[in-house]
Amino acid sequence: MKKVLLTGFEPFGGEKINPALEIIKELAAAKIEGVVLHTAQIPVVCKKSIIALEEKIDALSPDIVICVGQAGGRSEITIERVAINVDDYRIADNEGNKPIDVPVIEKAPAAYFSTLPLKSIVKGLRKAAIPASVSNTAGTFVCNHLFFGLMHKLSASPKKVRGGFIHIPFLPEQVIDKPNTASMSLSMMIKAIKIAIEISIERKEDLQIAGGTIC
User: Fold this and answer.
1) Catalytic position from the list 67, 143, 145, 152
2) Catalytic residue among 46, 67, 145, 167
3) How many whole angstroms separate alpha carbon 46 and alpha carbon 38?
4) Is 167 a catalytic residue?
5) What is the pTM of this model?
6) For position 214, what pLDDT does the model report?
7) Whole-angstrom Cα distance, residue 2 to residue 198?
8) How does the average pLDDT of the chain come out, rounded?
9) pLDDT tier at 212 (50, 70, 90 boundaries)?
């Protein structure tokens, strides 16, 4: 049995709901073959988000860590390729912090790559009729902040823990007052994250298929 830690953020930016949090609530009791699944709610607060994640990793010693966050406006499930070492917040986090052009972690590398099988997950999601793609930017808000903190911690771990970040769209109820903004049903997003977990367990190496962008 593989131990998987799945995290989701609390609501932020004036929203009353965050699909990432709803997903982990629904999957907390899910049965996934070969998996012992643990879930954790993460605050949308710089520094505190990383601390909360590190505490969970230390307590659980998982084999795989998948963090999930809302990317309002995106129309697909996007599997993030890279976390960068910069905070540049367009809006304040949930405690009013708004760092601009500062490192997530001082003296850490400029970036880390996900160790999830990104393209395999995308292929699996598309096969299940779920819109998905590889993303080459996780932004510069708390999602990227947490993603970078995750990969920095895993890079120093003697245990070969795999990890990464997945962005999800708004829920339909979040876009009622946002004309021409993409959304996705909660049931589809739950299915997508479950598939991502299953593929992350199954595949040790990723597929070598095209998944880049022109610009």
Assistant:
1) 143
2) 167
3) 23
4) yes
5) 0.97
6) 77
7) 10
8) 97
9) confident
Residue 205 to residue 120: CA distance in whole angstroms: 9
For residues 6 and 24, the answer to whether their CB atoms sit within 8 Å is: yes
Instruction: Give the residue carrying structure tokens 């598939």.
Output: 195
Quote the crossing angle between the two packed helices 118-127 and 186-202, to the nearest 10°: 130
Q: pLDDT at position 215, please?
A: 67
Task: State residue 143's pLDDT score.
Answer: 98
Query: What is the rounded CA–CA span in Å between residue 102 and residue 140?
Result: 10
Specify whether 143 is catalytic: yes
Tell me the one-letter amino acid at 34: G
Amino acid identity, residue 165?
Answer: F
At residue 21, φ and ψ (nearest 5 deg) are -70, -40
Residue 164: predicted pLDDT = 98
Catalytic residue among 46, 67, 80, 145: 80
| Per-residue pLDDT reduced to its tens digit, 144-179 | 999 999 999 999 988 899 999 999 999 999 999 999
Q: Which residues pair with 64 in a beta bridge?
A: 4, 162
Q: Closest Cα to residue 77, out of 210, 183, 168, 199?
A: 168
Which one-letter amino acid corresponds to residue 168? I
Q: Which tokens belong to 198?
A: 């299953």
* Phi, then psi, of 80 in degrees rounded to 5: -75, 135
| pLDDT tens digits for range 113-131 | 999 999 999 999 999 999 9
Of 76, 98, 33, 38, nearest in space to 167 by CA:
76
